[in-house]
Design brief:
The chain is 34% helix and 20% strand. It is an alpha/beta fold. The structure holds S-adenosylmethionine.
């Protein structure tokens, strides 16, 4: 076990029995249940514990703060922000960011990706984190205050109704969140709506191999903390195009369990019909 995983496990002694409860056995959870679950995990993190969002709280290789190359000090983020991570990949490493970019992190959780991105878009850029859990928003704001980063904002809202106007941002990032949406077509359409023409979408998510036995697939989804359901690459691709994205690529990064794997999903919104000032990127 890595030092980071050990630290996380030791810190996990602060977990509450409410969080440990196997809340999502049986039918797929509703959005309200998903958000309540993550609110409980945010409170665990706020109390100094280490949230793990699998039903038996067993960490899965390739998930959590261990996907980031470095300690909190090396990453220059508060220790609590790294400990609260429930990532399945590092979207900050896969989305190109430039000074001046306006970035949106969907399902921002404890705020780690927002804080890491904020540095990369300085000077002139900013990062907004949106999450449906008020406890996660509070946690992320504490981490932002600890880090001293000022070009960030955290807003309460759903993926399926993003609290931003059309074409508000240049880049959308997200880390292990779209799999939790109970209305993925709507969530992807909302991401396309808030991106400017020619904007970039770069996320990590958990996907399913094609042709899995439905019962085994559902069992793997529950075991990995993705109980709402995963998409195959083909299904994802189809939904991205239907949502209004012009081009999409899906790159597998590492296996998880039972035919599920982590992937980088990238797409762009159609470029403006009449280009104005050339985009320096
Ligand atoms: C697996 S955690 C990932 C958090 C963060 N991206 C990270 O890497 O640590 C999922 C996050 O998405 C949020 N979430 C789940 N469903 C959501 C929805 N429909 N709209 C907005 N946020 C949602 C949860 O509250 C939680 O903070």
């Amino acid at each position: 076990m890595s030092a980071k995983a050990r630290q996380k496990r030791e810190a996990g002694s602060a977990r509450s029995s409410v969080v440990v409860a196997r809340w999502y056995q049986g039918a797929r959870p509703s959005r309200t249940q998903v958000v309540a679950r993550y609110s409980g995990l945010a409170r665990v993190a706020a109390a100094g514990g280490a949230p793990v969002d699998t039903p038996d709280e067993q960490e899965i290789d390739g998930c959590g703060g261990a996907v980031y190359a470095g300690s909190a000090a090396e990453l220059r983020v508060p220790e609590g922000a790294l400990r609260a991570s429930m990532a399945c990949g590092n979207p900050v490493a896969i989305a190109e960011l430039f000074p001046g970019d306006r970035v949106l992190d969907l399902g921002s959780g404890g705020g780690l990706d927002v804080l890491l991105s904020a540095r990369r878009v300085s000077p002139g850029g900013f990062v907004i984190g949106v999450d449906a859990s008020p406890d996660m928003i509070d946690l992320a704001r504490v981490h932002a205050a600890e880090s001293g980063v000022t070009n960030v904002d955290f807003r309460l809202g759903y993926l399926e109704a993003i609290p931003l106007p059309d074409a508000a941002v240049d880049v959308v990032i997200s880390n292990c969140v779209f799999t939790l949406s109970t209305d993925k077509p709507r969530a992807l359409a909302e991401a396309a709506r808030v991106l400017r023409p020619g904007g970039r979408f770069g996320i990590t998510d958990v996907l399913a191999e094609p042709g899995l036995d439905p019962d085994r697939r559902a069992a793997a989804e529950h075991a990995t903390g993705c109980p709402v359901g995963t998409l195959t690459a083909d299904e994802y691709h189809e939904l991205l195009l239907a949502a209004g994205f012009a081009a999409a690529t899906i790159t597998r990064t590492h296996p998880i369990i039972g035919g599920l794997y982590s992937a980088i999903v990238r797409a762009t919104t159609p470029a403006p019909a009449t280009p104005g000032r050339p985009d320096p990127r």
